[in-house]
Write a structure and sequence with these properties.
The chain has 309 residues and is an alpha+beta fold. The protein has 12 helices and 10 strands. Helix 1 packs across helix 3 and helix 4 packs parallel to helix 12. The radius of gyration is 21 Å and the shape is elongated.
Length: 309
């Protein structure tokens, strides 16, 4: 069993101080990365041993909430789920390497719940950002038949300047370039844009559905909800019809948070299980190249997860 997260799970006496999203991620991670199965009573015992609860009934109530939420999450990805969620037991069906997209997103989430664990791998998050952008792209292309996508995020292997990026997008979508120099700065790099997702018609004319997307893989995702800025992108490209925003993140949001963030994004919102829903559309939906890269990135992090001795 993994150690309890260092944030999101606190001593609960008169009220619940165990955040459901963090708790569910911990339970899922225990089964996917450590124990082949876990019972509800095992989890209650762990909470009592760690003095999170004094009242076993109160602990069992929160465990029941988590079981319900995990069952609901995994119903959205159907056969793509690596777990079997029974009434009182969760069992591993597939190894973490067999579901590298799921494992990758879960590890990105755990980085926010375990203080210090992710830090041992350095402070350069460029690779994880690049992998998450590619993962989001591949998921969308599986789930949105006939759509196309352009990765635009700046990385060590993807360094096109903003002017060149604008020209690429405008040319691909049949739009015209606006005044890039007036409305941006030299530091803009990718203009806070990671992915352009669009659905062309056979006539190759404008006036099509377009999403300008931010893919936020780090702990500062909440500060990026306003990006990409449409007030800038509608000036540096002269769109025939205004595009919509999109936002992707690896966390699993509960219903209230999901609705609130949808309102702020005012467009397409993809959390972990919307991304992983590609597995319900197509088995083995990841490209072989991305699959290998996700496993390579994830392996040392899985090995270093904080486990009970």
């Amino acid at each position: 069993m993994l150690n309890l997260p260092t944030r999101g799970i606190s001593r609960s006496i008169d009220q619940q101080n165990v955040e459901l999203d963090v708790f569910c991620d911990w339970i899922e991670s225990c089964v996917l990365f450590d124990d082949p199965e876990l019972s509800a009573s095992d989890v209650v015992d762990a909470l009592m041993e760690e003095n999170i609860y004094e009242n076993a009934d109160m602990a069992a109530e929160r465990v029941d909430d988590a079981w319900t939420e995990i069952r609901r999450r995994h119903s959205w990805i159907r056969d793509g789920s690596p777990l079997i969620v029974d009434k009182r037991r969760i069992t591993r069906l597939k190894t973490w390497k067999a579901v590298p997209a799921h494992s990758f997103c879960l590890l990105l989430s755990l980085a926010q719940w375990y203080k210090g664990w992710a830090g041992q791998f350095g402070s350069n998050y460029m690779e994880q950002g690049e992998l998450f952008e590619e993962l989001t792209k591949e998921s969308l292309l599986v789930q949105f038949e006939g759509w196309q996508a352009i990765r635009t995020g700046w990385s060590s292997t993807h360094r096109k300047n903003l002017g060149g990026l604008v020209d690429q997008i405008a040319s691909s979508l049949g739009e015209s370039r606006g005044n890039v120099e007036k409305w941006t700065s030299d530091e803009a790099k990718d203009g806070e844009l990671d992915l352009v997702c669009y659905r062309p018609f056979l006539d190759a004319r404008v006036g099509i559905p377009v999403f300008l997307m931010q893919c936020a893989s780090g702990a500062d995702w909440d500060q990026k909800l306003h990006t990409p800025r449409l007030e800038v992108w509608t000036k540096i490209i002269n769109w025939a019809s205004r595009p919509k925003k999109g936002f992707a993140l690896p966390l699993a949001l509960d219903d209230s948070a999901f609705v609130a963030k949808c309102n702020l994004v005012d467009g397409l919102l993809l959390d972990r299980y919307r991304i992983l829903a590609a597995g319900a559309c197509k088995r083995n939906w990841l490209s072989s190249t991305l699959r290998k890269r996700l496993i390579t990135w994830s392996k040392p992090r899985v090995q270093a997860l904080p486990r009970k001795q």
